[in-house]
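Bug #77: duplicate submission created two jobs. Keeping one. Sequence:
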Amino acid sequence: MNFVFDLDGTTVFQAQRMHDDIRDGLLALERSGGNVYFATARPLRDTLPVLPECFWHHPIIGCNGAMFSQNKAVVKAHSFDPAQVGALLAWLDNHQIAYLFDGHWQYAISDKPHHFHQHVADLGIPPGCNQTLRHEPIVKLLILEDAHHDQVKHMCKQTLNSFEIYHHNGHHCFDLVPARSNKLTALLELGLDMQQTVCFGNDVNDIAMLEAAQQAYVVGKQIAPNCEYVQLTEQTVALTLHQLANNLCV
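Kept job's structure:
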């Protein structure tokens, strides 16, 4: 049986390292024969600091499905057309809209400051040169000012051939990723049979994989997938993991 876990708001909370009780529940699942995968909006660079080292070698879907990593390395990633995303970045600069964009490992920030820039730097890696990195593959663009959503979306339609937008509940920001980048598509590309897969999530970017899963678990009350699901709280995640591990042993 496959088990797929979102991170922030599902198995990681307040952007802190995964709690030991949840780590132990995931390890119990593995000991019982479960295959554990992670699927997050974070790039690999920002995933490793919050994920216990015992899981660093696992398959990790990042950037909302645009990035796939294993053994602490990016294996493949979708990226924007360089000229098109370059035009969008120039427009964001001209309109003084704060952003952050991710390459395979490095990232760059807008000249306009935003408190989230420091949060990412605190994870251990400073930003690279914006003008240099915008000429390398860009996997995800995080717009840090949701008030400009309509303007940005209109500009995206003018500059990008195709794209996906993911909002994050409770945060005033949204992600832009290349088209057809989502967690479910990434899982299918890995060859997972979703009827043999259990998924845990809490946000809109998890809905597609939750609805396709054999069993869905939703942490919190931010989303309501169009499927049967078990609702959990932060306090009940670890207990549920141990119960699932015990069930696998039966």
